[in-house]
Amino acid sequence: MYENHFVSVIIAAAGMSHRMGSKINKQFINLKNKPILAHTIEKFERCRFVDEIIVVAREEEIEYCKKEIIKKYKFNKISKVVRGGKERQDSVYNGILALDEKAGIVLSHDGARPFIKIKDIVSGIKGAAKYGACVIGVPVKDTIKVVADDNNIENTPKRSLLWIAQTPQCFKKEIILEGYKKAISDDYLATDDSALVERIGVEVKMIMGSYDNIKITTPEDLAVGELFLENKSIIFDNRKFILQSR
Ligand SMILES: Nc1ccn([C@@H]2O[C@H](COP(=O)(O)OP(=O)(O)OP(=O)(O)O)[C@@H](O)[C@H]2O)c(=O)n1
Ligand SMILES: C[C@](O)(CO)[C@H](O)COP(=O)(O)O
């Protein structure tokens, strides 16, 4: 609970892992001997404000998920495991339909983002309570180009305005519900939840997160992920910088 809001988290884990090119769902691949999805769920389990976690899994993986992730790692905030849909948006919507009736704040999170920090989850929950809608993200470091089909560069957006949207994306329940209902009635598909809320005219705040909250998408992300879990530190300017603080 956060300030009388019941906090629900939807973890989307029902993708096909096409870009990983793996036979098994990438979320069941081990990083330091623990499946990626277990690393992810653990962060939300350990966040004291989180009341329930709904895992969205592929229908054929629901039983595996219950046995090899939830039971094995003794997670006890999981209220339901529901089946996913064709797109991430369909999967999150199935999670929304399964929310506890007490839900007041709803977070959506990618099962494939295991390095989320608890402090950033807390910022997201507080942001949703304060503003109604917020997204955890980081400013881009590179210059971004808009490129046409023929590879010609069309334009160069001003970098200082560009942020990478990560998850969790955090909303008051009625706001995310309205965004999803409108998207469904308009047959509108987006790659994140915030876009559905932005298009109904609700302001969404961007909240500074952490650069290590990467999405495990392609094989090189696994190597980076293993490195993060080493908890290696680098020292410069008499400051200690820990690659991933847990
Ligand atoms: N129909 C879908 C598609 C994606 N996801 C989840 O949404 C998150 C972000 O998606 P992404 O990294 O793109 O995963 P995949 O869709 O599995 O990857 P790909 O596009 O390479 O197949 C992942 O945790 C993924 O499991 C989901 O629950 N349901
Ligand atoms: C929601 C998301 O993780 C924000 O960066 C991202 O949009 C998911 O997109 P994908 O196409 O499912 O990788």
UniProtKB/TrEMBL annotation:
Q: Which Gene3D superfamilies match?
A: Spore Coat Polysaccharide Biosynthesis Protein SpsA, Chain A
Q: Does the keyword Transferase apply?
A: yes
Catalyses which reaction(s): 2-C-methyl-D-erythritol 4-phosphate + CTP + H(+) = 4-CDP-2-C-methyl-D-erythritol + diphosphate
| Pathway where this protein functions | Isoprenoid biosynthesis; isopentenyl diphosphate biosynthesis via DXP pathway; isopentenyl diphosphate from 1-deoxy-D-xylulose 5-phosphate: step 2/6
Q: Which GO terms describe its biological process?
A: isopentenyl diphosphate biosynthetic process, methylerythritol 4-phosphate pathway
Q: Which GO terms describe its molecular function?
A: 2-C-methyl-D-erythritol 4-phosphate cytidylyltransferase activity
Q: Which UniProt keywords apply?
A: Isoprene biosynthesis, Nucleotidyltransferase, Transferase
Q: Where is this site: Transition state stabilizer?
A: R19, K26
Q: Write out the coiled-coil annotation as residue ranges.
A: none
Going by the entry's taxonomy, the superkingdom of the source organism is recorded as Bacteria
Q: What is its EC number?
A: 2.7.7.60
Show which residues form the site (Positions MEP for the nucleophilic attack): R159, K215
- The question of whether Nucleotidyltransferase is a record keyword is answered with yes
Q: Which family does it belong to?
A: Belongs to the IspD/TarI cytidylyltransferase family. IspD subfamily.
Purpose of the protein:
Catalyzes the formation of 4-diphosphocytidyl-2-C-methyl-D-erythritol from CTP and 2-C-methyl-D-erythritol 4-phosphate (MEP).
What's the name of the protein?
2-C-methyl-D-erythritol 4-phosphate cytidylyltransferase
Origin organism is Tepidimicrobium xylanilyticum
